[in-house]
Amino acid sequence: MFKTTARWLDTVDSLMTLSKPASPIGLLLGLFLTACACFDAPVSAQDPKPPSGADLVGTSAFASVAAVRPGEPFQVAVRYRMKPHWHIYWKNAGGSGQPPILDLKVPEGFVIGPVQWPTPEVFPGADASYGYAGEVVLLIPVTPPDRLDVDRVSFKLDLEWLVCRRVCLFGNREHLIELPVSTGAEVPPISESHQRLLEHWRARLPRSIRTIKDAGARLEGDRLIVEGPIESEADVVWFYPDDTPGVSPAIPSPVKGRIDAGRFLLDVPLTISPENALGGPLRVAGLVVPRKTGRSSIMIPSIAIELPIPVGDAFSSTTDQDKPPPVRGGTPSERR
């Protein structure tokens, strides 16, 4: 018997003045408005059958293990392959679009973690959007219970996405993954092709700034300051904001930083609106993305940052005691 344990749905606050859809009607309205916002050319009346979002995006799903072992975490990998010139979206779609929905149903006792998103690319426009062209693999962490009294387990995955070029189209698909349960000492490996896919896309996951020596993030009034060492290949650095209700960059994103003497500095002015936090805690989050100009094929890992924002009558009036501590990288002994 299945139970729904997680459903990821992010909407784009900058696209609509509405808050996140809280009902199927709200979701359909959001998708309709998104599609309208993405149109910049009409679909030809001569097309006998316009493509659907399902025609434009191929999907597959597999597990990072060949068998489930009690208490041992694994990942469900979801692969999206887009037709040329079409793209889907990151968890923060940006100025237009909608992120994919991944609805994983698992057996009783299994626990799902948050979706792991590789570093996106930027699709420029009046309001930049973030997403993936060509191909991407999203990863869902899953932890089994410590005891399993069955021989096999099944996982049902419902996918929904918006795919855009000059128009935006909706697509959806279902996948079923079945795995044996193993209590033995050895588990057979997964296929080499699946292993290569996992290695490729895991390498494109952001690193936490806490793991990087001499790097840190802090708040100075209503500004986010991030600094640290830069990879030798990079000559430009950007900040891609996450979807954080109530907090957003006060200037168009992505926000460009500075590089000097082997270190980067990002100074991001913030608009902080507690009334738009949708009942959640105020926080600022996003990615520091180093790049080599004209060499997008060079893979330089991005850096994930997240800081809570203190709540007060006015953010600018908070004292040093009210401010959250800065986030610094390095080992515990190096941070002392």
Q: Which class do the helix and strand fractions yield?
A: mainly beta
Distance between the termini: 49 Å
Tell me, rounded to a whole number, the average pLDDT.
83
Number of helices: 4
CATH superfamily of the largest domain: Thiol:disulfide interchange protein DsbD, N-terminal domain
CATH class of the largest domain: Mainly Beta
Largest sheet: 6 strands, antiparallel
Structure description:
The protein has four helices and 22 strands. With 336 residues, the chain is mainly beta. The protein folds into two domains: 201 residues, Thiol:disulfide interchange protein DsbD, N-terminal domain (Immunoglobulin-like), CATH 2.60.40; 129 residues, Immunoglobulin-like. The strands form five sheets. Strands 13, 14, 16, 18, 19 and 22 form a six-stranded antiparallel sheet that branches. A five-stranded mixed sheet has the order 12-21-20-15-17, with no helix packed on it. The chain starts with a strand and ends with a helix. The N terminus and C terminus are likely disordered.
